[in-house]
């Protein structure tokens, strides 16, 4: 599982490029030109990203991408449990993103968490006359009906920006009138090229409205940290937090999985930020580093190797107590993890995987598959930037195909060629792949399972991958008649 | 941060506050506050027009749904359909971004048409709009005309398009608009004086249950009535798994849809689902035109059968008569498990009317009846149904209320069960009563969309599901001495 | 009472004793004692031969089931069928009493034939025996011959009769014997050299699911294979409610049954259900004869389809191919909800083989497999299935054990669910796991016998029922923070 | 609701006789002759039963009757909760009667109650070699596996008597060896003409083996009574017992609903036996009267009128305390009962009912229907004797049809003619009647509902009758096409 010079039998730079070229043949010239730079064989030795990224989606190609609103509502804001998140605009955006991300939450829904759909449900007249007044009233109704909400985020949908509403002004007024944090977030879906800008805008909004507005009530310790870019999908944070506590750290805030507004607001007081999803939250780590001098560290908690590596990297930043704890924890869990590997690896050895997800998974989970004996033969991101791809090269075997914002057409072609034993991607890809007879796991959402992070998570991950790949149901795909 | 601000410390919601509010939200007092809301909508039971439009665009042979707007919109619609059907939902968007606001979406549309046409080789494209082009006022007619002229798509390549603003109506209205456009596009110039296909054109309306479409087709086959089901999703969203991915499985044949204008009879089901389409059909289609209620329950199924018999001069076949008898048999056999049970029901107008009919026929009480995108006309129709039965006398209708309102209703004035969709599961849990997932979407159970709710078989299915659940509850909650072999 | 006996006072079972024993019966120690039983049978999962015989006698056109024995026996059989199907089950008995023990049952039989023939105007009578005449050794052949001679029934009136001793075998054996007699009676003298009906004779075997029979017929219709389903209960026990009581609704036409001896192919389903009948058919029927497993699950359904295709030289129709694909689709979509779940399964041999097949195909573990009237041969067949799959490796088979044994198994070595019939509900409750009522009888739920379990549709139905129940359990038992919109 | 001279419009002695004659037309002569005396118009003034009864069932007529075993196992023994009841013989009889009577029970199944199926599962070899040895072993296995069982009943099925097994001898031996009451009951199904003989045999067995073998531990009082012929169908005893306690009586034993062996054994110490199901248990009342001088009283707890009447009859046998209590209870419940009547009577007024059941219901429930405004236009019993019919005459309106051991053919004919709005009978009749479009309630078993007795029961009864008669589902029976 060394991260250099891994090769997959039958996959060469040439074979991969040939596959890419073939996939591009079907495009009209303009489309082909646009798409070509986004597809390449992996070159682990290269110093820069092998593919272009963070470009506008090519129209008409069937992309899996979402929008800025999705990045703001679904990813960054939605998981903060003690705030009401208002989808400001027409009814749809909030409805589609209601309960569909599996960022799990503590508390009582409608009382102390607000995993619901709040919307201003714009009508024609709101488009014509503007929605600011409605928003103001809505905010005060929210406060009255949900008295324990710690704050309200106002997440703009497309029309809001287009008709020139000023939600920032309304929010300012509301803060005064309601004595409650009301955070306006101009994350209209048309902004930027993917959900990525929504993350960025949301980060900026946290920076401008939240960070530094609270302090922790209990005394500071050298072990105070925050977990950044951890969204508690399928309970990941609930696997990772106890592990970090077991090595002696105090996780003062999680951004934003099962998150709490005031803890996030006091994060400037921690001693270290651990960042899991680099893509969606590196901005804030940088801000906190610049403004408050808080160092940050990228970690990966998928699979025992990466956990081990990450824990030791963390330990290196702390005193001997932590260092000893880390070794104790590793010594305690490694045998358990080996048992998991011993159970499942014989059934998964040599199987091929393709990934196409968002955030961090296309690189972070590679090692976990490899520990189960599987080869990842293709990977790519929906909304990555160059720095993501830079980080990906080393994780992927040589010459395997890397695809950015892959179109369904390309993905299908690659799968036809590579015939993976498993594809890990999202709901939009799932049934297409399954119709091809390819086992599949939703790797955005752990396919209604989880957690996949941490020690606890690896066990679940291994079980699920085995179940997907080895379900006897696949035997029946081909009819004998 | 202003320097003089006092340090504010992190506080936690106390368990006491949490319990207090948890109790409070179940009270009459809270209900009143909740119903006083004017601006805030919480947990609406409907979504925006384009979703319905996409359903239509999927439902014709070889047709590629095309979202004119942000790619994020397309992702949302597709995911929703994926989750509900557990099936692929291939659709493209032209990925409009900020510059669209300045320059309009024509460039995006053209490039997208060119790419989509080349990559996905559709026989037709169905374009519908999300918010952005609606707000900026894109002229689709002109854009598409230009696309043909510039050769992005062939001159004669059929492209239907509909304006489906999200800030107006709900998914059923988007369905209607897109269907209208599909039919206008496909039938253009196809009306032939004197020609009659001899067929029934059946328009089931915005229905996300593939089993219902199969059931309509089965019924028509039993009758021996040749038919074109318009916007037929049955194979589109219930396709075989055999190792081959098909981009366009099934759907109404374009040829049949084109010729539908020369049909013998065109029948829409559901008074509320396809009003614009129906009104256009009345003016443009040959043959007879009529609209019947969605056939939920015996009475509406009878009306459907009898109308078919009348229109095509064929008696209701013996096989369907026997089915009717078996459905009534199932109803009488099971009536005691549902009689007088109170239900909260919500959903799209035509489904809602169907639930109310069915429940009244079983002697159950539709009690809280809620439509989060309703109308006076719908309210009147529901009330008329309620007035026809003893079991409707205590019912109340709530138009344009949402599921947070429904929660207040259920918590303050309890019922025995809810009929709705997956979104009702939180109320169901809080109230400790079952939720019957007959509506759309169903994100958390498998295969339910494969089980028809219409017609006599639909009656049997609903009886089975509901009554057995009530028996389950008896078995699960009774004390030992009331736990019995027979029920 | 002897005068010197000390007064004994009424005592009560103490709560302490009750708790102690309640715990004890769940232990390994108890299990061992329980399995050491030799004479006592507790909660057997089978009943006596005449019940199966009656099912057959109901299943032919105009045929009146006739119990030669006590009227109490007839009441029991009829009630059982009434409760399971929630349908009438008209049958007569000749009401033997004590004098029968002395004089034999001929007088009763004759009087009963005369009355039944006059009152219920059957086209045929199917006589089968309960204990009394079996113990005293009544000679049915002679009795019936005499009845004809004495004019109680017309000379040519068809009367089938079978010895179905209750102290031997189970209901499936009674089914076999009665079916054999029905066919012998109806086909007597009908074999015609050179004649071939071109039809398939399908013998589903002792199956109490009317949906299965309809499904067989639907499949054959899709194939376009002309067929006679022998002992067809589908209309008999699923008749319409339309205000007219029909004594004999449906059933295999006597003419068709008679001509079945000239069939092209005769196929029995289930290796264990109709062995005697099959063996006689092999010697007496024209055409090909073969026996296939009851088509539960994909593999056995495939085998059924392919054999039909082969025998009739027709390809498996596209519609069934698509259905197969949809079934496999449902399986893959839902596999994660059932994968590796452990099941206790019990039932009649052919059903049991079906359950095991289906579960293994889904990646679930059939774990405790129990037949309360099994055989070495059955055990071998089940073991062979288990050996074919990773998911069968931990399974154990229990032949000729009862449901009180099964309770011990489930309480000491837990499983996730039970597949069986209503009688398993006490174990299900004690173990707090679901019971899937796929077998016979079902006394406590409605309509389940209307839902087919065989073929591809059967696969979808089982997937739906089982997987949604497991999701229900997740939703019902998870804590708030794991209660999710999607599953 | 006076019990004399009630007439039903359109029903005369002549019309009823004509209907009977017509029904008999289809019979062969012998059958007609046998059946004719079992069918007659009611004559409330007559001094004797208007129909013949307790005769052999006419072969081949489709009777609903059961057998002696059914009367013993299903009716008398089965409800005794703390005994194991062994169905001795082939597997079927016990299987059919397993859980199918709704005699509800307290306790934990398999621990302190035994609502299960115990059988010796006779095989061919048991028939040939006899089953006595097997029985002995079975009894000892029972004792070992069910240590809290207070006793065992051995209920013979047909073969046992026919092959000459001596279960009485085995039982005697077992009593000694196991130190447990083991009661042999020769209730083979071929004995007698219906379940009735099974009741009688069971009563005799209780007399011979049980009664007098225990005494109550607590001191006697003048208010000690037993409830006889009450089987707790649908929880009836749980409605009636508290009512009797409310008037000040101590119900020391119930025969046999939710019954306990030792309480039954001590019943000879009570001061009064109240008998509900006269048919199945009058024998024992007479025995206890003769042997122990215990008076007995027939009561009827269906519907407020009969409850009132019965309570006052009981009161008449006790002191003023009880008398006062009874009046208090009547005064307390009568308004509640009137409310029930007020609710349902408007919907049921003038509706016609036909009954065909067993035991006491064909006469005992008549008044309850009448209180709901309904007329009972036909009634009959499966296994009644002359004394039952004598008691029925006065309860039924004049000239209504009375049928004994009615055949399905006759019942169908009568229903065609009378077109009742409800039939109350058993499971074997239920679906036949429903196919005719006639609302139906199972009146053996309260159709999975109950209780129907006592004040609590009347409310349930009225609700159920309304539900059956007025279910809108009946509207759909006739197809419009």
Automatic annotation (TrEMBL), chains A, D:
It is an enzyme of class 1 (oxidoreductase). Residues 30-51 are annotated as: Disordered. GO terms for cellular component: molybdenum-iron nitrogenase complex. Residues 67-469 form the Nitrogenase/oxidoreductase component domain. GO terms for molecular function: ATP binding; iron-sulfur cluster binding; metal ion binding; nitrogenase activity. Its EC number is 1.18.6.1. It comes from the Bacteria. It catalyses: N2 + 8 reduced [2Fe-2S]-[ferredoxin] + 16 ATP + 16 H2O = H2 + 8 oxidized [2Fe-2S]-[ferredoxin] + 2 NH4(+) + 16 ADP + 16 phosphate + 6 H(+). This molybdenum-iron protein is part of the nitrogenase complex that catalyzes the key enzymatic reactions in nitrogen fixation. Belongs to the NifD/NifK/NifE/NifN family. This is Nitrogenase molybdenum-iron protein alpha chain. It comes from Pelobacter propionicus (strain DSM 2379 / NBRC 103807 / OttBd1).
Automatic annotation (TrEMBL), chains B, C:
It catalyses: N2 + 8 reduced [2Fe-2S]-[ferredoxin] + 16 ATP + 16 H2O = H2 + 8 oxidized [2Fe-2S]-[ferredoxin] + 2 NH4(+) + 16 ADP + 16 phosphate + 6 H(+). Its cofactor is [8Fe-7S] cluster. GO terms for cellular component: molybdenum-iron nitrogenase complex. InterPro entries: ChlB/BchB/BchZ, Nase/OxRdtase_comp1, Nase_comp1_CS, Nase_Mo-Fe_CF_bsu. Transmembrane segments: none annotated. The keyword Iron-sulfur applies. The keyword ATP-binding applies. GO terms for molecular function: ATP binding; iron-sulfur cluster binding; metal ion binding; nitrogenase activity. Its EC number is 1.18.6.1. Residues 48-470 form the Nitrogenase/oxidoreductase component domain. It holds the Pfam family Oxidored_nitro. Keywords: ATP-binding, Iron, Iron-sulfur, Metal-binding, Nitrogen fixation, Nucleotide-binding, Oxidoreductase. Binds 1 [8Fe-7S] cluster per heterodimer. Gene3D superfamilies: Nitrogenase molybdenum iron protein domain, Nitrogenase Molybdenum-iron Protein, subunit B, domain 4. It is an enzyme of class 1 (oxidoreductase). Belongs to the NifD/NifK/NifE/NifN family. This molybdenum-iron protein is part of the nitrogenase complex that catalyzes the key enzymatic reactions in nitrogen fixation. PANTHER family: LIGHT-INDEPENDENT PROTOCHLOROPHYLLIDE REDUCTASE SUBUNIT B. Tetramer of two alpha and two beta chains. Forms complex with the iron protein (nitrogenase component 2). This is Nitrogenase molybdenum-iron protein beta chain. It comes from Pelobacter propionicus (strain DSM 2379 / NBRC 103807 / OttBd1).
């Amino acid at each position: 599982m060394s991260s250099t010079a891994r090769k997959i039998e039958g996959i060469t730079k040439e074979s991969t490029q040939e596959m890419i070229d073939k996939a591009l043949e079907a495009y009209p010239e303009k489309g082909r030109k646009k798409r070509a730079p986004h597809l390449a064989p992996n070159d682990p030795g290269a110093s820069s990203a092998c593919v272009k990224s963070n470009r506008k989606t090519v129209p008409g190609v069937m992309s899996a991408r979402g929008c800025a609103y999705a990045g703001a509502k679904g990813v960054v804001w939605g998981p903060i449990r003690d705030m009401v998140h208002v989808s400001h605009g027409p009814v749809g955006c909030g409805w589609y993103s209601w309960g569909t991300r599996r960022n799990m939450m503590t508390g009582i829904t409608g009382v102390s968490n607000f995993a619901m759909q709040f919307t201003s449900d714009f009508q024609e007249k709101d488009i014509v006359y503007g929605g600011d007044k409605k928003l103001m009233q809505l905010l005060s109704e929210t406060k009255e009906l949900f008295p324990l909400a710690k704050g309200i985020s106002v997440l703009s949908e497309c029309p809001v920006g287009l008709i020139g509403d000023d939600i920032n002004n309304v929010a300012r007024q509301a803060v005064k009138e309601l004595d409650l944090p009301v955070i306006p977030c101009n994350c209209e879906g048309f902004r930027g090229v993917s959900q990525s800008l929504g993350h960025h805008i949301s980060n900026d909004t946290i920076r401008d409205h939240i960070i530094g507005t609270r302090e922790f009530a209990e005394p500071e310790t050298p072990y105070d940290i925050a977990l950044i870019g951890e969204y508690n999908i399928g309970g990941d944070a609930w696997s990772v937090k106890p592990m970090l506590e077991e090595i002696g750290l105090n996780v003062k805030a999680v951004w934003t999985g099962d998150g709490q507004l005031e803890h996030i607001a006091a994060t400037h007081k921690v001693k270290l930020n651990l960042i899991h999803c680099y893509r969606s939250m590196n901005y804030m780590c940088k801000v906190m580093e610049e403004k408050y001098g808080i160092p940050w560290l990228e970690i990966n908690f998928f699979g025992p190797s990466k956990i081990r590596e990450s824990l030791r990297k963390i330990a290196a930043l702390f005193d001997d107590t932590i260092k000893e704890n880390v070794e104790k924890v590793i010594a305690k869990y490694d045998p358990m993890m080996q048992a998991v590997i011993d159970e499942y690896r014989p059934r998964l050895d040599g199987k091929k995987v393709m990934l196409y997800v968002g955030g961090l998974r296309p690189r972070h989970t590679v090692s976990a598959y490899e520990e189960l004996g599987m080869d990842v033969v293709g990977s790519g991101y929906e909304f990555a930037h160059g720095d993501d791809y830079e980080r990906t090269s080393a994780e992927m075997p040589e010459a395997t195909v890397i695809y950015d914002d892959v179109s369904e057409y390309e993905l299908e072609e690659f799968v036809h060629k590579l015939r993976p034993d498993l594809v890990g991607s999202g709901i939009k890809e799932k049934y297409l792949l399954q119709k091809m007879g390819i086992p599949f796991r939703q790797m955005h959402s752990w396919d209604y399972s989880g957690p996949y992070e941490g020690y606890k998570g690896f066990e679940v991950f291994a079980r699920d991958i085995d179940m997907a790949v080895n379900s006897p149901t696949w035997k029946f795909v081909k009819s004998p008649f | 941060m202003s320097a003089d601000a006092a340090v504010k410390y992190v506080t936690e919601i106390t368990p006491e506050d949490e319990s207090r509010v948890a109790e409070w939200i179940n009270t009459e007092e809270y209900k009143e506050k909740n119903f006083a809301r004017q601006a805030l909508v919480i947990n609406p039971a409907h979504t925006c027009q384009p979703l319905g439009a996409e359903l239509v665009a999927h439902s014709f042979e070889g047709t590629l749904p095309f979202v004119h707007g942000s790619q994020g919109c397309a992702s949302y619609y597709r995911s929703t359909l994926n989750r509900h059907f557990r099936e692929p939902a291939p659709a493209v968007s032209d990925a409009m971004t900020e510059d669209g606001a300045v320059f309009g979406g024509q460039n995006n549309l053209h490039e997208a048409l060119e790419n989509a046409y080349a990559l996905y080789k559709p026989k037709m494209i169905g374009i519908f709009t999300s918010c952005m082009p609606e707000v900026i006022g894109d002229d689709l007619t002109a854009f598409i005309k230009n696309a043909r002229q510039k050769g992005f798509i062939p001159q004669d390549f059929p492209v239907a398009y509909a304006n489906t603003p999200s800030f107006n109506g709900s998914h059923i209205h988007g369905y209607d608009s897109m269907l209208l456009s599909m039919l206008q596009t496909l039938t253009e110039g196809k009306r032939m004086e004197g020609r009659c296909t001899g067929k029934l054109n059946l328009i089931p309306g915005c229905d996300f249950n593939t089993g219902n479409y199969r059931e309509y087709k089965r019924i028509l086959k039993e009758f021996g009535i040749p038919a074109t089901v318009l916007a037929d999703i049955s194979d589109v969203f219930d396709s075989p798994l055999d190792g081959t991915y098909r981009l366009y499985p099934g759907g109404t044949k374009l040829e049949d849809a084109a010729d539908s204008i020369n049909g013998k009879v065109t029948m829409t089901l559901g008074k509320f689902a396809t009003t614009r389409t129906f009104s256009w059909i009345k003016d443009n289609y040959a043959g007879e035109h009529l609209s019947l209620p969605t056939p939920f329950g015996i009475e509406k199924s009878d009306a459907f059968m009898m109308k078919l018999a009348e229109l095509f001069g064929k008696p209701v076949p013996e096989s369907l008569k026997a089915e009717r008898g078996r459905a009534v048999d199932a109803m009488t056999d099971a009536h005691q498990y549902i009689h007088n049970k109170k239900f909260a029901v919500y959903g799209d107008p035509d489904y809602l009317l169907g639930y109310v009919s069915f429940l009244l026929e079983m002697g159950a009480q539709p009690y809280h009846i809620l439509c989060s995108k309703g109308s006076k006309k719908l309210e009147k129709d529901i009330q008329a149904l309620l007035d026809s039965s003893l079991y409707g006398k205590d019912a109340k209708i709530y138009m344009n209320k949402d599921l947070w309102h429904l929660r207040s209703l259920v918590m303050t004035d309890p019922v025995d069960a809810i009929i709705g969709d997956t979104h009702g599961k939180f109320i169901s849990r809080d109230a400790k009563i079952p939720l019957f997932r007959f509506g759309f979407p169903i994100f958390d159970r498998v295969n339910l969309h494969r089980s028809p709710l219409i017609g006599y078989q639909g009656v049997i299915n609903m009886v089975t599901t509901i009554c057995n659940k009530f028996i389950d509850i008896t078995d699960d909650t009774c004390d030992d001495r009331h736990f019995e072999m027979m029920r």
